TrEMBL record:
UniProt protein name: Uncharacterized protein
Region described as Disordered: 199-219
Organism this protein belongs to: Trebonia kvetii
Biased composition (Low complexity): 209-219
Length: 219
């Protein structure tokens, strides 16, 4: 628990550890308050990103659903497809640090203090609004909501998100193993890590079983 505690500090560290580094250049990001940071044109293909933190998961998910509804017209949980290089009309799932996109959980389940973050660290929704691609996601440890607007290319926005979201690490984050590509440079200061993943939870394992009690985490 030696890493940064502030939203701005966590994002600055993520910038150094993204692969490649430099996905959130400090010169492109403005700290508006202790709970709000806005980055303008951090990389080509990304027009703007808003980051917010909230003190409770219930508040976080109220804001997440409201933001998706406001931009996309409605909130539709757990679609058959997940966000990718070719964002269609709408997609929404959970996400985790195993690079999986679970659809078996609702945000109401994820609000519970007993929910295990190895199973799902947050949720993501992507869609087109006003002809522009958007990707809205949560990071539950840290209570963070982010809204990213692309400049036109859906693949550029998604690839940026894929590089940055795994290295935004608030205190108490848990990972089981870090030998996967995007997790090679994850900041260690705020990380609780086990190199043994629960049976059935590894990428390509065809599903996820319940992690052991020692792996449970939360805010």
């Amino acid at each position: 628990m030696s890493g940064p505690t502030s939203l701005a500090g966590v994002l600055q560290q993520a910038n150094l550890c993204s692969t490649p580094a430099g996905d959130l250049p400090p010169g492109k990001c403005q700290t508006q308050s202790a709970t709000a940071v806005v980055c303008t044109a951090p990389v080509p293909g990304v027009a703007k990103v808003w980051f917010y933190t909230y003190p409770a998961l219930s508040t976080l998910y109220t804001q997440y659903v409201n933001q998706v509804t406001a931009l996309a017209g409605s909130y539709q949980p757990n679609t058959n497809t997940h966000c990718g290089n070719t964002i269609g009309s709408y997609a929404e799932t959970g996400w985790n640090h195993l690079e999986l996109h679970p659809t078996q959980f609702t945000y109401q389940q994820m609000e519970a203090a007993s929910f295990n973050q190895v199973q799902a660290m947050g949720r993501q929704a992507c869609f087109l609004s006003g002809g522009k691609p958007y990707l809205v996601w949560t990071t539950d440890v840290g209570g963070m909501l982010a809204v990213a607007q692309g400049t036109g290319s859906t693949s550029a926005l998604y690839n940026w998100w894929a590089q940055i979201h795994h290295v935004i690490i608030f205190r108490g984050t848990v990972m089981c193993g870090q030998n996967m590509g995007r997790m090679n440079s994850v900041p260690q200061g705020n990380l609780r890590s086990s190199m043994v993943c629960p049976t059935g939870s590894t990428p390509g394992g065809g599903g996820m079983s319940s992690p052991s009690a020692s792996m449970s985490g939360g805010m």
